[in-house]
Amino acid sequence: MNTYIAIDWGSTNLRGYFIENNTVTNTYSSEKGVKNITDKLEYTTILSTIIKTFSASENMPILLSGMVGGAAGWIDTTYVNCPFSINNTSKNIINIEQDVINNPIYMYPGLCIKNKEEDTYGVMRGEEIQLIGALKKEAYDLLILPGTHSKWVHVENNDSTSIIDSFSTVMTGELYEVLLHNSLLGMVEDKKIFSLKGFHKGLQTAKDSDAIIASLFSTRAKLLLGGIDKTEVPAYLSGMLIGNEVKSQLAQITADKKIGVVANKHLSELYQLAFQSFNLNNVNFLDVQEVTIQGYNTIAHDFIR
After folding, report:
1. pLDDT (tens digit, 9 = 90+) per residue, 55-72?
2. What pTM does this model have?
3. 130 closest CA partner among 301, 294, 13, 258
């Protein structure tokens, strides 16, 4: 099947793609993310709107991914345990049965790590599509997916496939939003101004700090005492948190590893500055939408006929 609808349905928003011959020909976006939906009947209403917007036929498949399949979402799907091979992705597809929409609806489950003996646990939903897309195009040893919950993903490669072996999560994005909008540290009028000068100052603080939790209040103290300008506060806080994330994961970054970062343009620029501040230059940057569509196409090619 060359034509289908893919929907990346996250916690805060959703983005739908009308895909023909592996190419996005139309998009749909909404702030109706999972956390903004109070009645599960809304899911089929939103899907009906997307189908109508795309003028899709009743037999056109719809592929869902993200938090829509989580415990707080529409239908709670199981996780697929790592190690996870990107070959034969179709075996993990879940067919969603419901009585409202005639279109066949499928959901791709997230990935998890569950090792009771080592007390190691981890979950992801949505990012697995990006991983499949990135690894289908090229083999990487380490993939980094910045965001609300940044993922650092270890990959084992052989002649036939790439295997997602394990991953860790750093709550950089969520912590940034909480501190900027709900704490004393973010008490500035314009939170949308982003100063590169402030970001570099935050990176330096992260590099000099042995424990970022003990350095966070410097955001407020420096503002009050003239160490930073009020226009530098959001970027300073961002620099501290991203710098700390990279610093905390330095042991994973070695010269012999092929490393990729999957992000939008803004985050790619910030993480590149963070890596450079630690003299790390062997990092490739991949566009998040491009690899997401590649991931959907890989899955669709396997199971949509």
Report:
1. 999 999 999 999 999 999
2. 0.93
3. 294
